[in-house]
Design brief:
The complex is a heterodimer of chains A (405) and B (220). With 405 residues, chain A is an alpha+beta fold. Chain A is built from eleven helices and five strands, in the order αααααααααβαββαββ. Chain A is 67% helix and 8% strand. Chain A has a five-stranded mixed sheet. The longest helix of chain B has 15 residues. The chains are: A alpha+beta (405), B alpha/beta (220). Chains A and B meet through α7, α8 and α9 of A and α1 and α6 of B.
């Protein structure tokens, strides 16, 4: 039967299968890695013991960092030798201040899970090589005893080798499977963090996608519909001027007047709509768009832009432009302000916007729907809005956005 | 009717381009070439040496300001070549770039004006004659920008200045504001004084004054 033959074939080929040697190599290397693993745990314990002094916590942080690195080596081994592909977990967030960095290192869940893995892995690596060897030896002795009928002789070399060759691979495989499970469960990416990252990615794709879509709609309207409407109005106007004169037929000119007026109104309306869909000023980038906005504002607007080299995604540029437009309009309409300051600075991760006026203050985000709407919109990209507006001191609104949606 | 003009037209929407060609020809002018992008515009102007260039700002391939770039290039190659650009939106940046060079023979109209054929043709002819044609909305934005200098002017002088910037004559301004031509002249003199523009013999002081002032307002 084919099935039996296939199983027999696999049994016979096991000693020379690539799989077997990869498993063996993995277990040997894993056993070697157990040494730094144990050192890492000892360092952690030492740090914990010393944690009453100042030296303890940095030691713990160091041990955690080492565990994270060891875990990465283990993941690489599992990927290359066991065929267990586990995604890298989120990197630890970088921090500029050393104290905050220490805090982040100590509360790094991925590193603590790595410590757990190292603790479990060290004995398993030992067992992983020792147990198959022991089992093979015991079986070989039993076979020997059974075949020779004697109890006291040491196991012969031949049965040992034969058994090791044909049984060993399956034992190595069993340990490899267990190792794979451990790697996946203990040092894979945190499932919650993975979900969050995936959601962020898909939201970002959706935002950028809709920004591109909106841009395309604006272009279609501009190049197609608006131009056509203008052409219609132009032709109506030409027809009207042809008809003027002593022999103009009845009310034709009057009707064309209406047609012309209506078309021109449609053009004007469409222009307003299109401008809201995608501010044409943004074609040149956020900086020039904000400069133009400041120039066209009814209030004097002072701009301080630090956007050189900024790599903002289109959705963020649109969002930032929308925020500044809205806030400057608020200052113009409600604040009785004499001047507005717009400061926009792009960092590596965050875009910081400040819009400050010297008006009467007293803006309340809880009451005005404008500011609340702004905060809602900014929140869709994990941005933040802070309003300071004590009566008589003007209003300052700070908006922070990620540089990429 | 004024003299017969040779016109080169650039507009990427075929239906609007054809309409404009018809309009210009109905008026008795000659369309030497009608093209759909900036590169062709520069080539057509080189080939035909027109009296005036009329171009859309936003054209292929990038759909940003190719028309303006091409118009400025034409003016660089043939200094003093009258150029009228029109666009869907008023952008002070575009007005500023247009007014940055020699001021005579420049126009910037909103695309909506194309639909008002008489006003549009007046603009083309005015620019071709070395005058200016700035859209009322362009002027409004540039004036808003120069608020401080304007603080000196009376509301009536401001109205007169805005009309002047559009390229209207004193008589036309008087007609629009419903006042006598003499009083417009008085206002104009007042504007020149307020803006500190001394009289000169040989230039069109009026155009130069308005443009110099607008340019100042646009770049401040």
């Amino acid at each position: 039967m084919d099935g039996t033959r296939a199983v027999a074939g696999r049994l016979l080929r096991a000693p020379v299968a690539r799989r077997t040697w990869a498993d063996l190599l993995h277990h040997v290397l894993a056993l070697l890695l157990a040494v730094p693993g144990v050192a890492c745990v000892l360092l952690l314990l030492a740090g914990a013991a010393l944690s009453v002094t100042l030296l303890g916590l940095p030691l713990v942080a160091l041990a955690l960092g080492c565990a994270r690195r060891l875990a990465r080596v283990h993941r690489a081994l599992a990927r290359r030798l066991l065929g267990v592909a586990v995604e890298e977990p989120q990197p630890r967030p970088r921090s500029t201040s050393p104290l905050r960095g220490l805090g982040a290192a100590l509360s790094d869940a991925t590193a603590w899970r790595s410590v757990g893995f190292v603790l479990v892995q060290a004995p398993l690596a030992f067992v992983g090589l020792y147990a198959p060897g022991l089992l093979v030896a015991v079986l070989a002795e039993t076979v020997q005893r059974w075949s020779t009928g004697r109890d006291d002789s040491a196991p012969g070399l031949l049965p040992l080798l034969v058994l090791a060759a044909f049984l060993g691979p399956w034992l190595l495989r069993a340990v490899a499977l267990l190792d794979g499970v451990l790697v996946r469960v203990m040092i894979g990416p945190d499932p919650l963090a993975t979900d969050a990252a995936r959601l962020r990615r898909s939201r970002s794709a959706a935002l950028e996608g809709s920004a591109a879509e909106v841009r395309a709609i604006e272009r279609d309207l501009h190049d197609g519909t608006q131009a056509r409407l203008t052409a219609i109005a132009l032709h109506v106007d030409m027809a009207r001027s042809q008809l003027r004169g002593p022999d103009a037929p009845g009310r034709a000119v009057e009707l064309l007047d209406v047609a012309h007026t209506t078309t021109v109104q449609a053009i004007t309306e469409l222009r307003t709509i299109v401008r809201r869909i995608h501010p044409p000023a943004l074609d040149d980038g956020l900086g020039p768009a904000l400069t133009a906005l400041a120039e066209q504002s009814a209030l004097p607007v002072r701009t301080e832009l630090h956007l050189v080299g900024a790599r903002l995604s289109p959705a963020i540029e649109t969002m930032a432009y929308f925020c500044v437009t809205e806030l400057v309009a608020n200052a113009t309409r409600h604040a009785e302000a004499g001047e507005v300051l717009v400061r926009v600075a792009a960092g590596r991760r965050r875009l910081r916007i400040l819009v400050r006026d010297d008006g009467r203050g007293g803006a309340d985000p809880a009451r005005g729907s404008g500011l609340r709407g702004l905060a809602d919109r900014v929140a869709t990209v994990d941005g933040t809005v802070r309003v300071r507006s004590a009566p008589g001191t003007g209003t300052s609104v700070r908006v922070e956005l990620p540089v990429r949606a | 009717m004024n003299r017969r003009l040779g016109v080169v037209l650039a507009e990427d929407s075929a239906v609007l381009r054809e309409g404009m060609v018809r309009l210009v020809e109905l008026r008795g002018h000659q369309v030497l070439a009608a093209v759909g992008d900036g590169e062709q515009l520069v080539a057509a102007v080189d080939a035909h040496r027109p009296d005036v260039v009329v171009t859309d700002v936003r054209m292929p391939p990038g759909h940003t300001d190719e028309g303006l770039r091409a118009a400025l290039e034409c003016r660089r190659r043939a200094p003093g070549l009258p150029v009228l650009v029109f666009s869907q939106y008023v952008e002070t940046r575009i007005a500023r770039e247009l007014l940055a060079g020699p001021a005579a023979g420049v126009g910037y109209l909103l695309k909506d004006r194309v639909a008002d054929s008489a006003e549009f043709l007046d603009g083309v002819e005015r620019v071709a004659a070395g005058g200016t044609a700035l859209d009322a909305e362009v002027v409004a934005q540039l004036l808003r920008r120069g608020r401080d200098a304007l603080a000196e002017l009376t509301p009536r002088e401001r109205q007169v200045l805005a009309a002047m910037a559009e390229g209207l004559s004193n008589a036309a301004i008087a007609g629009r504001l419903g006042v006598g031509e003499r009083s417009v002249e008085k206002h104009v003199a007042g504007i020149f004084t307020a803006l500190d523009l001394p009289p000169s013999e040989d230039e069109n002081r009026r155009v130069v004054a308005v443009l110099r002032w607008l340019r100042h307002a646009g770049s401040a």
